[in-house]
Sequence to fold (261 residues):
Amino acid sequence: MTPSLQRLAHWALLHTWDPMVPDRWRWLSRHLHPTRPGERLLDVGCGAGAFTMGAALQGYEAVGLTWSADERVRATRRAERLGANARFEQVDARELDTVSELKSAFSVVILCEVIEHVLDDRRLVRAAADCLEPGGRLLLTTPNFDYRAIVPEHDGPFSIVEDGGHVRRGYTRDELVALCEQSGLSVNEVGACSGLLSQKATWVTYTTGKVNPTLARLLTAPLHPFVATLDSSVTRWVDWPPYSFCIEAVKPHGAQRGAAA
Fold:
């Protein structure tokens, strides 16, 4: 498969039922710097593996972790068809700190829309930081506490057990910075993704998808180019809260493993 076809196939994987998935990839891809030979990336809670494969296509030796054996098999098959240098392992993100071979082994760790599903989020971020080599970067996205609910269920109630749903509404900027700093990381950037247009496209998908999922995808597919080009500027213009915050944090050189107890 040629590089152009690989990119096209990857974008097809990203355009799932959730229009906010491409938003997150656009932010992530801007922060995936040109790679050095052998540079490794870890995608924790990778799901279907689209971000892991995208990183592999940008030159990283990418490893995706999913709790599901079925998802691992599907992601592996997709990566093979795409020709992406991506490997997938079955690892529960909540137990990341028990996998010794991942320690200090990666220049980039991705935690994309994961920590809001985990009760002990501090343990997970600390474990992700542990997987970074000195100078490595954590790329994290998670819901903004002050988002405006796209559909009524986004206003809660939130789960009190880890059943796959959100266990909290989201985070403020200060909470995310503190979570990273408590794990021995230095925050470089607090950004955002999924503004007004993206959220409205998601509303169309959610509401129409309850009747006909195929129709929902057909209705929202033409909206993707407009969301990609106009979402940021329209969101700033109307002062609409983004759905997700996006964090880039760095592990300082000389940082010790498990620095924050």
User: Anything to note?
Assistant: The chain has nine helices and seven strands. Residues 3-194+242-250 form a domain with the Rossmann fold fold (CATH 3.40.50.150). The beta strands are 40-44, 61-66, 86-90, 106-112, 132-143, 186-193, 244-250. The longest strand covers residues 132-143.
